[in-house]
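User: structure tokens for Ribokinase, please.
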Amino acid sequence: RIAVLGSTNMDLVAYTARAPGRGETVTGREFRTTPGGKGANQAVAAARAGGEVMMIGAVGDDVYGTRLREGLEHAGVDTDLLHTAEGPSGTAHIVVDDTGSNAIVVVPGANGVVTTLGPGEIAAIAASEILLMQLELPLSAAVEGSRAARAQGVRTILTPAPVQPLPDELLDHIDLLVPNEHEAAELSGQDEPHAAAQILLRRVPEVIVTLGAKGCLYAARGGEPVLFAAPSVTAVDTTGAGDTFVGTLAVALGEGRPVAEAVAFASSAAALCVQKPGASTSMPYRSEIEAV
Ligand code: ADP
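Assistant: Done. Predicted tokens:
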């Protein structure tokens, strides 16, 4: 089983020719609401890829909360430990202009109340093979979750996004860190992925730096780094690629597959995701991943 300790957000996306300046109003062309949040996205990716997934976190007691929960359940994610908190759900307010550039305000809402874990959450983590975390919940929850996981020998995987300085009390309990190229550079002070990975290995035993269309770099303490190429595909929308990669990687690792095989599975899944528009809507099912 995979436990995801993370965020759920409703993405509210306005499409407009040109983003408004300060004090200005522009008329947009289109509006869409899509379920998101890195935690929920990774949970959906893992469930579609065949994982038994439990989501730990919180939605608000508003209409978005209901839809976010239903979306996860529809994907087959267990939401028994997804709490309903008083107040608004997490929201991401996104403006996309005709050049494809975006400006985003994320309001954590209910995600922000997940500062500590109860006995139910701790027990669920302890009963899992893998704990997936990102940084869209309060850091204190991630610290507690990772500590509980480590105490029970549960493998912990952290996506360090949104990127921020990471305290030892968190990294000391992380088995595998999966930053993208930008996050790896930010965390290590090294732009070059190999160099960045070597720095990060001082703090965690295994690192995978994802490199977009170039694939990913796997590095472990005491071993030679390995570069895995991504399948060559035509990308339409790379939103959710990183979350698809991590969610499906967790499924393969949870099945006891070696890293090289798990990375191949995750790379196939992420390559399928980028060929369709949207984030969670474009995540592939297991049969589709196995077909490529
Ligand atoms: P993020 O979405 O977090 O910024 P990346 O852009 O590094 O992360 O993408 C994560 C993974 O998704 C990559 O390691 C790769 O496997 C896959 N991927 C991303 N973009 C492409 C692409 N254009 N073609 C094929 N695979 C891709």
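User: Anything notable?

Assistant: The chain has a mean pLDDT of 96.
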